[in-house]
Amino acid sequence: MGTLAHDLHVLVRRMDREADRRLAALGTSYSRYVVLLVTGEQPGLTQRDLAEAIGVSEPATSRTVAALVAGGAMASERVPGTGNRRALHLTDAGRRLVDDASAVLGSSFDDLARSLGIDPEAMAADVRRLAETVEEG
């Protein structure tokens, strides 16, 4: 039996791998989907803000953003008067990719939890509360 921390880590890794498997048909990954999803919800974020929002290092975020910009899913525009700060936005292709990926992922993980007698909304609330408490230190 693992600890809660270990079990959550294993669960997240398995969910990420399954999402990657499902999104491969669209030519994307779960990590890229998350970047696109957050950028779509919060247009104008800088890479630093995006990295913080998704909990990934700035260099990893920079590589992902560069690939998405090169692929035409995102646009990066210099913010006037801020030096080299760049605001991120989805392109039409990026919005379509988010919609397609969201349809592929659907509510499958929620449905799986329900099939096990777990309320996914309550579980998500507990996980958010735990994450916020850990963040507060």
Automatic annotation (TrEMBL):
Domain of life: Bacteria
One Pfam family it belongs to: MarR_2
KW Calcium (keyword) present: no
A single GO molecular function term of this UniProt record: DNA-binding transcription factor activity
Swiss-Prot/TrEMBL keywords: DNA-binding
HTH marR-type domain sequence ranges: 1-136
Record bears the keyword DNA-binding: yes
InterPro entries: HTH_MarR-typ, MarR/SlyA-like, WH-like_DNA-bd_sf, WH_DNA-bd_sf
Transmembrane segments: none
SUPFAM superfamilies per record: Winged helix' DNA-binding domain
Biological process terms in GO annotation: response to stress
PANTHER family, alphabetized: HTH-TYPE TRANSCRIPTIONAL REPRESSOR YETL, TRANSCRIPTIONAL REGULATOR, MARR FAMILY
Name of the molecule in the record: DNA-binding MarR family transcriptional regulator
Provenance organism: Marihabitans asiaticum
